[in-house]
Design brief:
Elements (H helix, E strand, L loop, with lengths): L1 E14 L2 E6 L2 E7 L6 H13 L3 E2 L5 E3 L8 E6 L21 H19 L4 E2 L6 E16 L4
Parallel strand pairs: 3-6, 6-7
Antiparallel strand pairs: 1-2, 1-3, 1-8, 4-5
């Protein structure tokens, strides 16, 4: 499982011109899933997300996790293209991305575990939809985590 985590001032997801989800201050999390992913990967990544100290404290030092930032939110968006392989040619291969029958249950488990650890409702996109994701990156701070590269 691969995540791209972006610290944002705001983020939103629109589908067919309709706002599906939005957050203010918080994290936009893009999630790529492969067939080898498991509950262990989900647990590892969710704990990383809620405990990663990437928000500024009172002294302007990145020292706070999202759970300690007042009014913060999480927006989780599935993105199979994170699993792209670009080793050969110019057309990315998505052979490592899970098909929906495997990916949807793992994505739903990821969101549920993240919500449990975060303690607040998680905003999401819609799995498999053509989404327009907008964000105002804060910092910018962008972190990539791959559960297979611990």
């Amino acid at each position: 499982m691969r995540l791209v985590i972006q610290r944002v001032l705001s983020a939103s997801v629109d589908i067919e011109g309709v706002r599906k989800s939005e957050i203010g201050n918080g994290l936009l999390i893009l999630v790529g899933i492969c067939d080898e992913d498991s509950d262990e990967d989900i647990d590892y990544l969710c704990r990383k997300v809620v405990n990663m100290r990437i928000f500024n404290d009172d002294e302007g030092i990145m020292n706070l996790p999202v759970t300690e930032v007042a009014g913060s939110g999480l927006l989780v968006v599935s993105q199979f293209t994170l699993m792209a392989s670009t080793k050969k040619g110019n057309r990315p291969s998505y052979i490592h991305a899970s098909r929906p029958d495997v990916a949807v249950p793992l994505y739903e488990k990821f969101v549920a575990k993240l919500q449990e650890l975060f303690g607040k409702e998680i905003q999401t996109g819609t799995f498999g939809a053509d989404m327009q994701v907008a964000l105002v990156n804060d910092g910018p701070v962008t972190i990539i985590i791959d559960s297979k590269k611990r």
